[in-house]
Amino acid sequence: MLKPQPGRFPEVHGHRGCRGLRPENTLPAFREALRLGVDAVELDVVISADRQVIVSHEPWMSAAICRLPSGQPIAPSEARQHNLYQLPYARIRQYDCGLTRHPSFPEQQSEPAFKPLLREVVADLENLSRQLGRGPVKYSVEIKSEPAHDGLFQPPPAELLALVLAELQALQIMHRTTLLCFDKRILQLAHHAVPALPLCLLIEDALLLAEHLAVLGFTPTVVGPDFRLLTPALAAELAGQCIHLVPWTVNEPADLRAVLALNPWGITTDYPDRLLALR
Predict the structure, then answer these.
(1) E strands along 102-251, which residues?
(2) Which part of the chain is the GP-PDE domain (predicted)?
């Protein structure tokens, strides 16, 4: 595992493509991120009723950004009824998740967009990379998984992981992929199934790093904390164990500069343009 190099500019990871600029987890967002020059695209994956690997943050249609096939908005109280794990992909594709601007991102340009298959995203970006004459992009693939969702919004962990790994292998991008998850069960299974695959433990609570690693049972390649949890002590602890630090989701210029001072391996941001401007 490589140690962070002082003075090295971190990898730029476009969160859900570039959520601050285009509809999240859609082809327009990933294309724009690639055009901006990100090193890696970060995306989330869930499973449909017909066991397709879908790019989506929630395993349901978010009322904040998605519309019914009829074009009508989705009531927040009914969002989870539009359960992707109970819908075939042909039906999922009929919903629009691009015309409604996310309320937290006023700069986001709305446009028609659907939840794509992982294989569509990869094929599209590989083709665009060639057109732009740039090197192949990396993929940060977050498997969305929660124990409470087993059997309801997702298959059991072993099946969920197997479906994603099979897709990554078929797409021949394993060597450029890091697998991310909050659910330690997924990472533990992946560590045994594909020992060479870089794994990222995502953290969003105040538990000590040592506590997280003790439960995980192995040292991951990457740790991705909520940047608000990041301290010089945590950055130093990770560097001391040769664990790459890739915090999320850092958006404001002042926060980006503060995180840059801690010499992370990468930074995940909704605004890759803002981070690239600091390069």
Answers:
(1) 138-143, 177-181, 199-203, 222-225, 244-245
(2) 10-279
48 phi/psi in degrees, rounded to 5: -90, 175
Q: What is the mean pLDDT of the chain?
A: 97
Angle 101-58-63 from CA coordinates, rounded to 5°: 40
CB 135 within 8 A of CB 178: no
pLDDT of residue 16: 98
Residue 233 lies in a domain: yes
Three-state SS for 143? strand
Does the residue 50 lie in any domain? yes
Helix then strand count (H, E) for the chain reads 9, 9
Number of CB atoms found within 10 A of residue 192's CB: 9
Containing structural domain, residue 208: 11-59+102-276
CA distance 5 to 10: 9
What is the rounded distance in angstroms from the CA atom of residue 191 to the CA atom of residue 193? 6
Q: Is the pTM of this model over 0.85?
A: yes
| Length of the chain measured in residues | 279
Task: Specify the pairing of strand 177-181 against strand 138-143.
Answer: parallel
Q: What is the pLDDT of residues 227-269, one digit of tens each?
A: 999 999 999 999 999 999 999 999 999 999 999 999 999 999 9
Please report where in the chains the tokens 């519309």 appear, as a residue. Answer: 67
Residues 6+ apart with CB under 8 A from 170: 119
CA 132 vs. chain centroid, Å, equals 23
